[in-house]
Write a structure and sequence with these properties.
Layout: E1 4-6, E2 12-14, H1 33-36, H2 38-48, H3 88-100, H4 103-109, E3 111-114, H5 120-126, E4 130-133, H6 147-161, E5 174-177, H7 195-201, H8 204-220, E6 225-226, H9 250-265, E7 282-286, E8 300-301, H10 305-312, H11 316-321, E9 326-329, E10 333-334, E11 337-338, H12 343-353, E12 359-361, H13 379-384, E13 389-390, H14 395-407, H15 413-429, H16 432-435, H17 453-466, E14 468-472, E15 484-488, H18 495-499, H19 522-532, E16 536-539, E17 551-557, H20 579-589, E18 594-599, H21 607-612, E19 615-620, H22 627-633, E20 653-654, E21 671-673, E22 705-708, E23 711-712, E24 717-721, E25 728-729, E26 735-737, E27 742-747, E28 755-761, E29 766-776, H23 779-783, E30 787-796, E31 802-807, E32 813-817, H24 819-824, E33 830-836, H25 837-842, E34 850-858, E35 861-872, E36 877-878
Parallel strand pairs: 3-4, 3-13, 4-5, 5-6, 7-9, 8-10, 9-12, 15-16, 15-17, 17-18, 18-19, 33-36
Antiparallel strand pairs: 1-2, 10-11, 14-19, 20-21, 22-23, 22-35, 24-25, 24-29, 26-27, 27-28, 28-35, 29-34, 30-33, 30-35, 31-32, 31-34
């Protein structure tokens, strides 16, 4: 048995897989002492679970089983000093504006609408305070619109907001955007590594430069506000937003936050603070979005107040001390209470004890998740301390309800005035009233600054520093560039895959290399380095080569995702994303050394890959400058060292797929590599063979997948019915179902009998259904504009109305006619048809308790084949539904 030892947190590690390097300090100068104690205090809190305070909070919605309190004691939170002294001139202007503004103008200021659901005329008519572009929103609905279009639209919104016709008060509109790893919605912009990679750098100074470059590129397109940085402290890597966090270590997160905010906004008190090239920053998501039970996005953090403070709030003191102007409240809950409705945290702690002097904005329609609220009415949020509703497609209903609620006293006039004052104060601080149209501001229209060589060089430097070397058997690396190099794997020449989610589109999908002008794939960087030195490079995705290589570099990993679409049940790649294993095995059998480059937003179970590879590099999601990887893998042409590995793990690496490895988990024996681990050249040591048993993995409940890969996915069951209420399971196929009205069989799509075929015979009504005994809540997905996507082939168009439906129990459901869309589809061709979940909701389905995920019914004749039915966002055609 190998010698064993424990690191400072009591984590079991194997001799030979401990950190082989010195470390830089994770501490940030000027951060309160309590941040430095965060790790120790969190451990004590988890062990003792002390009683929490009794300050006012939002009322509990549903208490978790351990009965942890959702109330706060503001006195135990850090007392901070807001860095901006009261400005008498600004306060005078705020009061003058408040006296002049009508109630309608004040209500408009607390609303933020998405550009896909609002026009400049709406901004003028309803006095809206802000607009945003969501992950899939763009000018004219074109996600790949050139930057000129973005700037022109910014001018239009601005002109509408300052129109004084009819006695209106001119208040410039703010435009917010998710520039979360560079100005990532804009074609041609520099894409930096996602936060998980930046966390591996341990370099706050570089973070400030990255933020400044991002801010400048945002200003080019006329926007003034980015929803960054994310200061979550993810404790469960199953969370689909884990890559948006820098680390599971609160001290590391705290060390980055102030630097990044200063890079975006400038230094408080300086002449260029909040002025171009700077933009407004947002620290998000307040609070404990990274601490939810089982890593569920928008879930519930079931933790004591001390853990909430010491772990999950670690990034907020340095952000507030740097003068961050906005904070985004989290979708998630703390001990059963939605943060967006939690007065104790928003008002008593953040604005009171911590002296935050900016304004608080919600996340995307997050107000609708507060008990007692709807998408179009939620006074609870404003009364709890929210200042601006991010109401992308619900702003119109909220406008009407807020007006009525203020008039009736449900929302005190003083609370509305305070919210508006905070918004106006920020706009005045940044000189927005004097700035003029976006296109006339400094740096606007300087499209040469998008993807500027200096910014790309900065991103390439960040890539180099983010790489973590986990294995280097026989000191294979660094490679001589004069070798014959084979580059394989589906991530080798895919800039979208190496960039991840929040890249041009919300999920980072539906894009290809042509959408990234000026960017470099990992293959491109390797090819350039090798051929410049006289070597040869060959690209072969499946690893089959024309000329035997000296070494093979296999690039693989997670496909792009964002938010809850990335939530996992187990810490492993899905079965359909493991083709690289066969490639690596074949290469090793041929005695070809293999370098594994793993692209991911988090550590995952990689024991098989670690065993197969001679060298293994965690490359995270490097962004547009894939050449940074070649910089470190290869020596200089003269044989000298080019760059060493500098990255160290920001998260624990799991030994098994079944148990989370991060700091908040109790299964300490699941840590293969601890936080801070990372090899340098010349320090490889020995590497033991790892167990290839992922742990006890069982079929999980895949709520949003009904049929895929030739199988009905548990817990869904294929059922049929001829009459309402007469539902029966389908059993083995082929079969005649629904009292002889439907024939069901299997047909081929990409594999033998991997699809279902349903033929309605025209002998009366018949339905096919995918039912679950237990209901599922799809409200989160509906809010995220997710659709039911059917991959179908029409063999015989419907002769009568054909409906798709979702059910929610007896007498509950929503149905939509899809026969016109099916008739219009090319016969005999496979096509992805998307039906937005919101359409089913509007048709009557209660998406909080869906028990029939998909139903199809008609009384006429029709024949269609189905190869996949699942929730998703990508489709060839998306049906529209009436408001």
């Amino acid at each position: 048995m190998r010698d064993q030892k424990r690191d400072f947190r009591g984590v079991l590690i194997m001799d030979g897989i401990s950190d082989a390097r010195g470390t830089r300090s994770n501490s940030a100068p000027g951060i309160s002492v309590w941040i430095g104690l965060a790790g120790a205090l969190a451990c004590i809190a988890l062990l003792t679970q002390p009683a929490t305070g009794v300050a006012q909070s939002g009322g509990p919605a549903s208490m978790p089983s351990d009965a942890l309190s959702p109330t706060v004691d503001p006195e135990i939170w850090p007392r901070l000093k807001w860095p901006l002294p009261t400005d008498a001139a600004i306060e005078s202007r705020v009061q003058q504006l408040l006296k002049r503004m009508t109630l309608e103008e004040k209500v408009g200021q607390v609303l933020q609408a998405d550009i896909a659901s609002v026009t400049p005329e709406d901004v003028r008519k309803y006095h809206l305070g802000s607009v945003l572009n969501g992950g899939n929103s763009a000018p004219g609905g074109d996600e790949f619109a050139p930057p000129e279009k973005w700037l022109a639209l910014a001018d239009e919104f601005y002109a509408a907001s300052v129109d004084t016709a009819g006695g209106r008060t001119a208040i410039p509109v703010l435009w917010g955007t998710d520039a979360v790893h560079g100005h990532s919605n804009i074609v041609g912009a520099t894409l930096f590594p996602h936060n998980v990679g930046l966390g591996a750098m341990r370099n706050p100074a570089l973070m400030e430069r990255i933020a400044a470059a991002t801010a400048m590129e945002v200003r080019v397109t006329g926007m003034e506000w980015t929803f960054a940085p994310t200061v979550a402290v993810p404790q469960d890597l199953r969370w689909g937003r884990a890559y948006e966090g820098y680390s599971e270590d609160p001290a590391l997160v705290a060390s980055y936050t102030g630097a990044f905010v200063r890079g975006l906004q400038g230094e408080p008190g300086s002449p260029d603070f909040l002025r171009p090239p700077h933009v407004l920053a947002t620290t998000k998501h307040f609070l404990a979005d990274g601490g939810t039970h089982e890593g569920r996005d928008q879930g519930d953090a079931r933790i004591p107040e001390t853990t909430l403070r010491d772990v999950h709030a670690a990034g907020y003191p340095p952000a507030i001390e740097a003068g961050v102007q906005t904070v985004m409240a989290s979708f998630s809950s703390w001990n059963g209470v939605k943060i967006t409705g939690h007065r104790g945290l928003l008002t008593d702690v953040l604005k009171g004890r911590m002296s935050f002097g900016g304004f608080i904005v919600t996340d995307w329609n997050a107000h609708s998740q507060i008990p007692g609220c709807t998408r179009h009415s939620c006074p609870q949020a404003l009364n709890a301390g929210i200042d601006m509703y991010m109401a992308p497609d619900t702003w119109r209903g909220l406008y009407d309800s807020l007006l009525e609620q203020v008039r009736k006293g449900v929302i005190p006039q003083e609370r509305l005035d305070d919210a508006v004052s905070r918004i106006l104060r920020v706009k005045l601080r940044m000189g927005l009233f004097e700035a003029g149209p976006p296109s006339r501001r400094p740096f606007a229209g300087r499209f040469d600054l998008l993807g500027h060589p200096e910014h790309r060089a900065l991103a390439r430097e960040a890539v180099r520093q983010s790489l973590v070397l986990l294995k280097n058997e026989g000191e294979l690396l660094p490679l001589k560039p004069q070798l014959r190099v084979l580059v394989a794997g589906d991530g080798a020449d895919d800039i979208a895959k190496q960039s991840g989610g929040w890249t041009l589109t919300w999920q980072g999908t539906g894009v290809n290399n042509s959408h990234f002008p000026g960017a470099t794939s990992i293959w491109g960087g390797i090819r350039s380095a090798v051929t410049a030195a006289g070597g040869t490079a060959e690209l072969s995705i499946d690893g089959r080569f024309r000329e035997r290589p000296d070494v093979a570099i296999v690039v693989f990993g997670e496909n792009p995702y964002a938010e809850f679409r990335g939530d996992l049940t187990y810490l492993k790649l899905p079965a359909g994303n493991e083709t690289h294993l066969a490639t690596m095995r074949r290469l090793r059998e041929q005695k070809i050394p293999v370098v594994a480059i793993f692209l991911s937003g988090r550590p995952l179970w990689m024991n098989r890959e670690l065993n197969l590879a001679n060298a293994f590099v965690a490359a995270w999601l490097p962004g547009s400058e894939g050449a940074g990887i070649a910089d470190v893998l290869f020596r200089k042409p003269d044989g000298s060292m080019a760059h060493d590995f500098e990255g160290r793990l920001p998260f624990s690496w799991p030994r098994r797929a079944t148990v989370q490895a991060a700091a908040g988990n109790t299964a300490r024996d699941n840590v293969l590599f601890p936080v801070g681990y990372g090899l340098r050249y010349g320090s490889a040591g020995s590497f033991p063979r790892l167990s290839e048993d992922p742990g006890p993995i069982v079929d999980s409940r895949q709520a949003g997948v009904f049929f895929a890969d030739a199988s009905v996915v548990a817990p869904w069951v294929l059922s049929h019915a001829a009459e309402p209420g007469a539902v029966q399971p389908a059993g083995a196929l082929p079969a005649t179902l629904a009292a002889g009205r439907i024939r069901a069989s299997r047909v081929d799509h990409t594999a033998q009998e991997d699809s279902l075929r349903f033929e309605w015979l025209g002998q009366g009504p018949g339905e096919i259904r995918f039912d679950s005994r237990d209901p599922f809540d799809f409200t989160r997905e509906a809010n995220g504009d997710v659709a039911l996507v059917l991959n179908v082939r029409i063999d015989r168009p419907p002769s009568a109305p054909l409906e798709a439906f979702m059910g929610c129990g007896p007498g509950c459901g929503g149905a939509l006619r899809i026969d016109d869309a099916l008739r219009a589809a090319p016969s005999g061709q496979w096509r992805r048809l998307a039906i937005p979940l919101k359409c089913f909701e509007r048709a009557g389905a209660d998406l909080a308790r869906v028990s029939t995920g998909l139903g199809l019914r008609t009384s006429g004749t029709a024949s269609l084949a189905l190869s996949r039915a699942a929730l998703g966002t990508e489709a060839d055609q998306t049906l529209s539904c009436a408001e």
